[in-house]
Design brief:
Distance between the termini: 54 Å
Shape: globular
Oligomer: single chain
Largest sheet: 8 strands, antiparallel
Helix content: 10-25%
Number of helices: 14
Length: 568
């Protein structure tokens, strides 16, 4: 149900009770497959509750519980106030979208309103809205623009009934990036100096003007989520620029940048896409690799084996690159460094913990060691603001500076005994483009190619690149024959496409005639890459893999994005 909002007069009732879920937040238009360029702000899955806590200062459990459902939201919120400032465009569209109970994206209420970019607050009055009976949860708000790359500063305030008590918002003082307290905060991030032999060699190459390539691989934080513009203000770009400034010595053009972050994915996928996204099919050999999966790897089925395998894949490359483990943090003061940090200790790798830097000071006053607030650091529950990305970049820069000042360590051999496991160190990718001797594929009804894929901003590009474009798609039009793969391998990982579409269906995976997995792409509810282990055995053997649509799902869509397999 799409409705047009009112003409949006300026709000005459400035004393109404309300709280912010966005406050002076920078948004940036990204090109979309359909519709206008936009910036999406997702509010489901506890995101709006977290924003109410961090941005709005809400602690009342009754108010927070009402934000869990669309029904509760309608009881609580009477109006939404939206203010937009921009020098790049005169008007920006505002979208409010409830997700539907059955049809997630198409079944709920969707309201659109035009907001002039003059900084004034414009009101979306819910008393005039005809709500859909299919409303489930508040799914997202969005800002639409005329062209990709346009930015604006926005605030969104939820106005509530008089019966609710709302605290006055406390304005945060600006962050002093030059203060002693900030310097001490950054110093806490150095979790482990590690053996510096490889990293110092990279620094020396840069100082001599030799070619140096720095690569970053991780999840959405490495992709740059929360940074505006994403390709210049993300931590990866900022720390790369800092490296060039420190060690380029007039040879900055000799230092090259690779950014390979993919939102919502773990090292289980990272190890499979490494050859294409980082090594560029063998055309690039990075001298330094920063691995950032500390807030993504909860979904790793192996609980650390894939992460360790990815680190070893990098460490054992012929050119012996330096490897840094970077541990980012969620707004819940959480990451996986207790699980993954021992892997870095095992190989004596340099490690940087943003959690160790920022969390101890979040609740301190400025005159007692506080440097910045969660509201200043976090764009949402998962991702940093521009200021947060700057903090991450400064944490990495501090490691590089300290390494440069230290004496050169002796080179050490990579430990042959893994900490968690090294099963996937030599994992190889297999998709529609790859021709592998001894591998036989009959796609059956998985004969189409899906072009509605997860797309990410790679390197320093403002535009997006699709992940796993050489895939096999089943649809209602392609029939109902099984996909069959005959492969000799020790382990096999399948990557399939998650989707929030009502057309997405379940597939069944058989190995040597036995059902081993049910792949349900609609569970996560959004378009992204999902890896699952099909088998992991001690010896290499030939297996016959069959993938077919589940009964009752034959007329649905399912996309096999690719596979990862090992031979040793």
């Amino acid at each position: 149900m799409i409705q047009k909002g009112p003409a949006a007069p300026k709000d005459p009732t400035s004393k109404q009770k309300g709280f912010y879920i966005l406050l002076d937040t920078i948004v940036e238009a990204t090109e979309r497959r359909e519709g206008l360029p936009s910036q999406e702000i997702y509010l489901d899955g506890g995101r709006m509750i977290n924003s109410a806590k961090i941005v709005g200062g809400i602690e009342d459990e009754q108010i927070l519980s009402l934000l869990e459902t669309s029904e509760g939201f309608k009881k609580l919120v009477t109006q939404i106030g939206v203010s937009v400032s921009s020098t790049q465009t005169e008007n920006v569209g505002f979208v409010f979208h409830n997700y539907g109970k059955e049809d997630k994206y198409g079944g709920g209420t969707l309201i659109e309103m035009t907001c002039p970019c003059d900084g004034a607050e414009y009101i979306l009055d819910f008393s005039k809205v005809q709500w859909s009976t299919q409303d489930d949860v508040v799914g997202r708000i969005a800002f639409t623009f005329e062209e990709p790359g346009m930015t604006a500063k926005v605030s969104v305030k939820l106005y509530v009934g008089e019966e609710y008590d709302i605290p006055e918002i406390q304005v945060d003082p600006p962050i002093d990036f030059t203060s002693k307290a900030y310097e001490e905060m950054i110093q806490r991030s150095l979790m482990n100096r590690g053996n510096n032999y490889r990293l110092k060699k990279v620094i020396e190459k840069a100082k001599k003007g030799e070619e140096v390539t720095i690569a970053y691989i991780g999840g959405s934080i490495t992709q740059g989520a929360g940074a505006k513009p994403i390709h210049t203000n993300c931590y990866a770009a900022r720390s790369f620029e800092a490296f060039k400034k420190l060690f380029g010595k007039g040879h900055e053009q000799q230092i090259h940048f690779i950014k390979a972050g993919v939102g919502g994915t773990s090292s289980e996928l990272g190890m499979i896409r490494y050859e294409r996204d980082v090594l560029r099919e063998g055309t690039v050999q990075p001298d330094l690799v920063i691995i950032e999966f500390a807030v993504n790897d909860e979904g790793d089925e192996t609980k650390g084996v894939c992460y360790e395998s990815l680190a070893l894949k990098c460490l054992k490359a012929p050119n012996e690159p330096a490897v840094i483990l970077l541990f980012s943090v969620f707004a819940t003061d959480w990451n996986l460094q207790e699980r993954l940090g021992p892997i870095g200790q095992h190989y004596n790798l340099p490690m940087v913990s943003v959690l160790d830097a920022v969390v101890p000071q979040f609740n301190l006053e400025r005159n007692k060691g506080g440097v910045l607030t969660k509201r200043q650091y976090f764009y949402d529950i998962f991702h940093p603001t521009n200021e947060g990305h700057q903090v991450m970049a400064d944490c990495l820069t501090y490691l590089w500076e300290e390494t440069d000042k230290a004496h050169l360590d002796e080179a050490i051999e990579i430990c042959n005994q893994p900490y968690k496991g090294n099963t996937f160190t030599y994992v190889k990718r297999l998709d529609r483009e790859d021709k592998v001797e001894g591998v036989r594929i009959n796609p059956g009804s998985f004969s189409e190619i899906d072009d509605d894929l997860q797309c990410v901003e790679m390197d320093d590009h403002p535009y997006t690149t699709p992940e796993f474009p050489y895939n096999w798609k089943h649809s209602a039009q392609s029939g109902n024959e099984s996909f069959k793969l005959s492969i000799e391998s020790k382990s096999l990982v399948m990557v399939f496409k998650d989707s929030g579409s009502v057309d997405a269906g379940k597939a069944l995976v058989y190995v040597d005639g036995k059902l081993v997995r049910e792949a349900e792409p609609y569970l996560n509810g959004w378009t992204h890459c999902n890896p699952v282990i099909i088998y992991d055995e001690k010896e290499v053997a030939r297996h016959e893999v069959e993938i077919k649509m589940a009964e009752g799902h034959e007329d649905k869509c399912f996309t096999i994005l690719g596979f990862g397999y090992t031979m040793q």
